Amino acid sequence: MALGKDYADQDCGIARTLEIIGERWTALIVRDCLYGVTRFSDLQVHLDISKAVLADRLESLVANGVLEKLTGEGHPEYVLTRAGRDLWPLINAMAQWGNRHGTGGTRTPTRAFRHADCGSLIDINGFCTACKIIPEVTEIISTPERASRRTDPVTQRLREPRRLLDPLR
Amino acid sequence: MALGKDYADQDCGIARTLEIIGERWTALIVRDCLYGVTRFSDLQVHLDISKAVLADRLESLVANGVLEKLTGEGHPEYVLTRAGRDLWPLINAMAQWGNRHGTGGTRTPTRAFRHADCGSLIDINGFCTACKIIPEVTEIISTPERASRRTDPVTQRLREPRRLLDPLR
Fold this sequence. Notes:
The structure is a homodimer of 169-residue chains. Helices cover 37% and strands 12% of the residues of chain A. Chain A is of the alpha+beta class. Chains A and B meet through helix 1, helix 2 and helix 6 of A and helix 1, helix 2 and helix 6 of B.
């Protein structure tokens, strides 16, 4: 692309966030990690992108302290660091805004975010209007709201209600 | 760039948001509009990007219902629509995450977001911990916290405490 990925003279938190998650597909990788996806092959099948692009984005997220790559027996796993988990309010705001105002108009999302304690939907600020609190990311359940047109195995497993960050293995 | 700007098969609010504000510079244009910048020339001097890129991004934001272009006497003005103002939680989360975790480590931001009623900083969820509420975007004051290295006239005017969306003319 003609423009670099840094915003050197902007001196602004938003620009610094975009330097780390502003590249194409990167925010969707973080979304999948919040859903508990940990493996390269699962990320690839769910995002349906090339291995080269995925490998590049994962390397960058690890280098920037958003993901940790765990290597032991079996497949390496990518898990969100504390900084990565702190992206939850941003990812939630993106999801909620897109469902309300995104291309194609208002529609029921395939999955919604609910407070585990009460089952209520959380809002664009991550606020549970029933309990009047902002639950931690680990207190959020992703629930299926309508059928997805995708049929890959990861999408199928995400059709169950699942707590965020609960590893999908 | 090799990849298009849509995420056709993702069927997800996050992807639909990225289709509208995921292009390079677009989120920073929305940020400036929240700060009250309304004119093409002011956006250009503050973002320091080419007129062609700025014109392209503005046209896209108008087409996608985020900005309205007001033409009357004098310069046209770009103002956020209701959908555009609803991007505030996302822009706030981006700013706060970047200041805490962005490239270069934790540092005092040049500007902070405070609740107009009490002067307290709001958090990454847009929550005022003093008042225990989530203020509306028009109840947020942008305050200077440290000197910016930028010297353009728009940056200089934004050094004053200013209410978000208060037009900068």
